[in-house]
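Chapter review: from sequence to fold.
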Amino acid sequence: MKKKVDDLKNAEEPVVTYGVINETLMAAMMGNQHSSPSDFDLIALARKGIPKKSLTALGKQISLTMEEIASILHISDRTLQRYTQDTLVKTEYADRAIALAKLYERGIEVLGTTKAFNSWIRHPNKALNNETPLNLLDTGIGFEMVLQVLGRIEYGVFS
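The token string follows.
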């Protein structure tokens, strides 16, 4: 009986994960400081802001232009161009950039490769009212819809 009580003392809260974050994508966002950041690391990063060079590295890894990234982040392309590589991007933009990296991680997990996900995200999808998933990423609801479709694909539901 004592054994069961001791086991309960060592119980921990379950950790919910939605796949392991792609280490290279998150390393680009974190300036290569962490290989597997926790959610709290990501919150701290968003609050601090991320340097433009991290956005540039992310864009290269996921094959998005800086214009496409600027559109997703709701920042003008010209403003983003003016930033030096070490300029910290504000919290609201950093938060969206982290969400973008996490979305790509999920897409790569579901579809298998970056190339397959990049192809999928640029083609119209019937489940998204014949919009390309990339065009929906300028809103939080759009991010959610794209993640829902990826979940459906993962479980074999026609999407």
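Two observations follow directly from the output. The first strand starts at residue 50 and ends at 51. The beta strands are 50-51, 88-89.
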